[in-house]
Amino acid sequence: MTVFGRHSESHRAERIGWLRAAVLGANDGIVSTASLIVGVAAAKADPSEILISGIAGLVAGALSMAAGEYVSVSSQSDTERADLARERQELATNPEFETEELAQIYISRGLEPDLARKVAVQLMEKDALRSHARDELQITEMGKARPIQAAIASASTFSVGAILPLLLVLLVAPEKVIPSVSISSIGFLILLGMISARVGGASIWKGALRLGFWGAFAMGATALIGKLFGTVVQ
User: Is residue 110 part of a domain?
Assistant: First the structure.
């Protein structure tokens, strides 16, 4: 006799909430701070000014990322709660219609009408709101909006990403800041792209190329601006 245990699987979709915020935060931390450092250095600023600019960029960027993620995801969470409140009201006032509505969803997915209605009735008896949240509103526990989690992940990873180019300002000679920060930051971005793609199950090289290209473009643009304005000021 074969006894089947409970089958447990881990899906990459479960990571999408924190992975998106983490990758966005780390990418912005590296790109914005490295670009700021390169731009200020290209304007012939003193090493202390470069460092202060980078630290200010780190603090401002981390707070901005946290606030932006919290507000954005909170708006999504508010929408979800409003939809659930409306669905709860409809279930209380017109359960027959809601049962048929759920059955029609299953029919559209390929179930026979009689079976679809039996499934709808059984699910409604067990947890009507959860069934409608999942199948009608597309709201699941896996994809549920979590503002605080998103804010912390974005701020933390932004700070980690921003620290990397800042450390180079302290470790290398002033005349080597621009090439050192530029090359190492592109390397950091390529590594980040590879890691995020690996965790998300995507192409490693595609993720690396995407982050590396846009990081190089951003740093090149800010270096050009810094060079132009630095020349004008002098």
Answer: no
Number of structural domains, the chain?
Answer: 1
Q: Is the pTM of this model over 0.90?
A: no
Distance CA 189, CA 195 (A): 10
- Asked if 190 contacts 211 with a C-beta cutoff of 8 angstroms, the reply is yes
**What one-letter code names the amino acid at 82?**
A
Residue 105 within any structural domain of the chain: no
DSSP 95-116: HHHHHHHHHHHHHHTT--HHHH
Q: Which pLDDT does position 119 carry in this prediction?
A: 87
The series of mean pLDDT values per 10 residues for the chain, 234 residues long, is 46 54 80 87 85 91 88 84 86 86 87 87 84 77 71 87 90 87 86 76 76 79 72 38
Long-range contacts of 31-34 (CB under 8 A, 24+ apart): 31/185, 31/189, 31/214, 31/215, 31/218, 31/219, 32/57, 32/61, 32/162, 32/218, 33/57, 33/58, 33/61, 33/161, 33/162, 33/165, 33/166, 34/165, 34/181, 34/182, 34/185, 34/215, 34/219
| Closest by Cα among 84, 76, 79 to 20 | 76
* Residue 54 lies inside a defined structural domain of this protein: yes
For residue 153, what are the domain limits? 14-98+143-226
Nearest C-alpha neighbor of 161 from the set 21, 48, 41, 16: 21
pLDDT in the model for residue 195 = 76
The pLDDT value given to residue 163: 92
Residue 50 in domain: yes
Which pLDDT score is estimated for 223? 72
